[in-house]
Amino acid sequence: MHSAADRAVKAVPLAAASEDKFYGGKCVSLGVALRAGLPAPDGYALPVALVSAIVGGDESAAAEVKALFEKLAPAMAVRSSAVGEDSDDASFAGLHLSVLNVMDADSMMAAIADVHASAHTAEALAYRQKMGVAGEPAIAVVLQQQILSEVAGVMFTQNPLNGASERYIEASWGLGEAIVAGLVVPDSFRLANDGGIIQQSAGEKDIKLVATADGLTAEVEVEADKIESLCLNAQQLQQLHDLAAKCEAVYGEKIDIEWAFHAGSLYLLQCMSITR
Fold it and tell me: How much is the pLDDT for 132?
């Protein structure tokens, strides 16, 4: 058990992250998932004060965090978790940085600094002002095992296009950031609340984003026969439907889920409220 003083300044396992004021929304949401037994990759939560200390040059803070890399090796993701970053009205997705496929401790420390800096860009600060988010950005960080997905995407438990009560899924080959970055036209699927397939449409997935051995990500051409073929089968769609139901039981209705398939297993990468 971590004391309040420790929780404010020490890295904790993601499953122990429970206070937004220390860890931000993403860490807390992942902590909820892990405590509920949902299939989220494990990792650590770095509180706001610890991230600030690292960026400010505190060598003891940096040494403490650097030692965590070996527990997540060989590859990890470094993600932002800002206090107040996501609510029913605002989402900072795409503004605050995620760094994927981090493969050594020095790169992890550089990624933490880059994530912190991403909250202070002109675009991020302008969005804060537009959405009425007061004060300076307070950035915590998620250190998480990297899922080297064969297929990944997003799933909404209410259709964001028309508000219908159904599952709406977008999917593509490789890492899901290809969809977030607009690099492909993803496949789309609509599922009824009982899991039945209402509609499925193939996109144009001519590239995929993959992790490389040098700790980077790369855009790779997709095999010709896969560009316009569906990347999810009926069994996988059923697994996603089941995951949506489990997430709704934990988080409530109208949620946005990031997910990934790797080696036959489905992983929950993130879960948040659908922003209006």
Answer: 64
